[in-house]
Amino acid sequence: MKSFTVSKAVTALMLAGLVLLPLYSQLSGNIFILTLFTRIVILALAAASLNLIMGFGGMMSFGHAAYLGIGGYAVGMLAQEGVGSGFIQFPVALAASATYALVIGALSLRTRGVYFIMITLAFAQMAYYVASGLARYGGDDGLTVYKRSDFSGLINLSNRTQFYYLCLACLFGVVFLIWRIANSRFGLVLQGLRSNEQRMQAIGFPSKRYQLVCFVISGMMCGLAGALLANNTDFVSPAVMYWTRSGDLMVMVILGGMGTLFGPVIGAVVYLLLEEFLSQLTEYWALIMGPMLLLIVLFGRGGIMGLLGRLNRG
Amino acid sequence: MAESLLRVDRLVRRFGGIIATDNVSLDVAAGELHAIIGPNGAGKTTLISQLTGHLEPHSGSVSLAGRDITYLPAHRRCALGLARSFQITSLLLDFTAADNVALAAQAHAGTSFRFFANARKEKGLRDAAHAALDRVGLAHRADVLVSRLSHGERRQIELAVALASKPKLLLLDEPMAGLGVTESQRMVQLLQELRKEVSIVLVEHDMPAVFALADRISVLVYGRVIASGDPAAIRANEDVKRAYLGEAHVVTHHG
User: Fold this and answer.
1) pLDDT in tens, B15-29
2) Cα B11 versus chain centre, distance
3) Please, what is the Cα angle at A142 between A139 and A144, to 5 degrees?
């Protein structure tokens, strides 16, 4: 990991692009691209949070989209009940995600491997059906958020550029946190557990406690993405929690490079841009996308980050 | 001898109809190197697993420094000063040697629920890791990924990891397993050094090593301790000779 100048350059280029995007949008008058990238940044945030448990923690959670829904519904339901302040909505979104993660994590972490994947998937589907049953909040049809979270003049979420920068700041903040966590005592224990759980127990670490805390941190980060997403689409529906959404997030992480800092961000950008442009070309875009993903996963072990890393060594 | 550091009292563990640990009692005094030998299938690994907390006994008790640890989970025993090495090398392959050892030190140096500060820059942990690596003669390999180390080096790292937790008692499960002649000799030398600092329970097949190192030897056959005593007494013991029938020379001609 010491001499990966190519991937460093690509990462820097991408980050600079993300920062300067609103400027481009303004100059070119292309508003659509800003809307598209707001969504990309939010989902990159979700992918980065998944990477914390999947890449660094070695826990294959297949129900991560549940937090997108929980964060989104926290905003939507509070707005519906007349609580429009973001200073209440966002903390509630984080707290709800943390609570869900704590309960689901405590139950799921009793299992390992395939069973862990299946049980996290099952809980997310339960959340999906619960949301579908919420008649007061739109049930199957979802819930329209008529007013975006109000941060009392501090920042205006209805302003496209301001909202974009808020999302970008959240993404950078979360990636920075993950970077600190990955190199902290806690992060080393976490990665040790990924590598060899029995060994870690033998040197004195109770494994589940660390994995559960990681699960909760990751869930809160994704809950934040959910709250932003509901503001972005002015709408939240059970569909954001559907298992294919969890699958999308997993693909972004694996595509970009599991266990790398910026891999999931690159993965999200590439995946969503591909989806966007291929779907404009043909309605059978999935036929092109599928094999492309397959090739990258097959030949680029470690995803795009892995590929870039190898370019370097020639 | 001084009061016992590890006391195993009438331990019983069955697997179905087989009694794998049959009323085993052992005492390990502080400062002692106590070897456990026995033919294949004698129940050595079963016994070790009950000492480390990976297997629960059906009856009997295990105590460490006077404290009953029979049913404590593995990580709690470790906190009380019981460290182990694995028969089959079990390290974090994608970590460097130093990281492997530093994590063991970290487990015993305050909480690991610290999320922000860079753990690789904690001087205390790094120093402890380097001291332990130096102890086993691998200081020069500190920054190499364990997956790139040789089998012999990994066995030494196993020891360094166990040492880094500053244990009262080291449980070594066949530390010579798979080592070549020179590597074995180096390991024996290393254990000669370590025994001055820490009490050791050594399970080992390498008889010359056992007889060279041990203060006392317990011989396990079919889950039972058939003899326990200093190397000379074990060498002269008729029951032991019979248990090792056919390889009787193993216990009589070495040392």
Assistant:
1) 988 899 999 999 999
2) 19
3) 130
**Distance separating alpha carbons of residues A156 and A178, to the nearest angstrom:** 27
Alpha carbon of A20: minimum distance to chain B alpha carbons (Å): 29
Q: Do B119 and A191 touch (CB under 8 A)?
A: no
Q: Tell me the pLDDT tens digit for each residue of A154-183.
A: 999 999 999 999 999 999 999 999 999 999
**B230: nearest Cα among B213, B247, B208:** B213
Number of H helices, E strands in chain A: 13, 2
Cβ <8 Å between B115 and A189: no
Count of C-beta atoms within a 10 Å radius of residue B3: 10
> Tell me: the pLDDT tens digits for B174-215?
888 888 888 888 889 989 988 888 999 999 988 889 999 999
- In contact, A10 and A266? CB cutoff 8 Å: yes
Q: What is the pLDDT of residues A91-103, one digit of tens each?
A: 999 999 999 999 9
- Chain B residues within 8 A of A188 when measuring between CB atoms: 99, 102-103, 106, 112, 119-120
> Is the CB of residue B37 less than 8 Å from the CB of residue B201?
no
How many angstroms away from the CA of A212 is the closest CA of chain B? Answer: 12
User: Rounded to whole angstroms, how far apart are CA atoms B200 and B32?
Assistant: 6
Q: Give the distance, in angstroms, between the CA of residue B106 and the centroid of all CA atoms in the same chain.
A: 20
Q: Going edge to edge, which strands form the sheet with B199-203?
A: B82-85, B169-173, B199-203, B33-37, B216-221, B224-229
Q: Give the amino acid at B40.
A: N
CB contact B103 to A (< 8 Å): yes
Which chain B residues are Cβ-neighbours of A203 within 8 angstroms?
78, 83, 103-104, 107, 161, 165
Contact A205 B112 (CB under 8 A): yes
**Token code pair at residue A131:** 């949301």
Nearest residue of B to residue A217 by CA position?
A: B115
pTM, to two decimals:
0.87
Q: With 0-12 CB in 10 A as exposed, 13-18 as middle and 19+ as buried, what is A33?
A: middle
B78 touching A (Cβ < 8 Å): yes
Q: Residue B245 has what pLDDT? A: 59
Q: Across the interface, do B75 and A205 touch by the CB < 8 Å criterion? A: yes
| Segment B137-155, tens digit of pLDDT | 899 999 999 999 999 899 9
- In chain A, residues with a C-beta closer than 8 Å to the C-beta of B161 are 203
State how far the Cα of A22 lies from the Cα of A2, in Å rounded to an integer: 33
> What is the model's pLDDT at position A198?
85
| H, E, C per residue of A43-85 | HHHHHHHHHHHHHHCCCCCCCCHHHHHHHHHHHHHHHHCCCCE
Separation in Å, CA of B254 to nearest CA in chain A: 34
pLDDT tens column, A213-262: 999 999 999 999 999 999 999 999 999 999 999 999 999 999 999 999 99
Mean pLDDT of A7-26: 94
Amino acid at B143: D
CB within 8 Å: B78 and A187: no
